[in-house]
Amino acid sequence: LNDVQISFEDKKVLYLVLDFIQEIQPDGVILNGDIVDCYSISDFTKNPASHADIMTEVRRAGWLMNELRDCKKKIWLGGNHEDRLRRYEWKRIPELANHPNLTFPSLFHVADYGFSWADYGEHYMLGKLMVTHGDLVSKHSAWSGKMTMEKYGTSVMVGHTHRLGVYYKRD
Q: What pTM did the predictor assign?
């Protein structure tokens, strides 16, 4: 599950996904980055009328992780949006950037919900399939897939680009 981007999630789709997870009862779930938007701390120009704030995102992410409580294996791979917290700290409050309570997994209580955390850029292997949020984008979505496969040299599933792209290579 990736690119939910709480506080801007499509609630109808998210509830359908949660119902599907409840129905099939998978062994585990991977939150594959950009689960929260971190809108209020992004470098982009923000709508002053927006009510998206980091503490609302913490609360709503907690709700989502609680909804996934029955999954045995729970992993959250950071995406570029989760990494906004680190970048914000390094840029605006560098003297607190290494404080253990100001990391993303600590602020969002990831371990309290039974999730293991991996920073943006890391991956998880499901057998021979690599799962990572991704960082490569092309205007042609299949090229994003091709570049990612060439970077890692294996089958890989990514989010990040918000577009379906498939690249096949026989070996």
A: 0.94
Give yes or no for a contact between 3 and 160, defined as CB atoms under 8 angstroms apart. yes
| Model pLDDT for residues 7-48, shown as the tens digit of each residue | 999 999 999 999 999 999 999 999 999 999 999 999 999 998
**Measuring CA to CA, which residue among 60, 73, 89 is closest to residue 29?**
73
Half-sphere exposure of 170 (CA within 13 A, CB side): 0
SS3 call for 65: helix
Instruction: Look at residue 171 and give its three-state secondary structure.
Output: coil
- Number of helices and strands in the chain (H, E): 5, 6
Q: Which residue has the tokens 């990040």?
A: 160
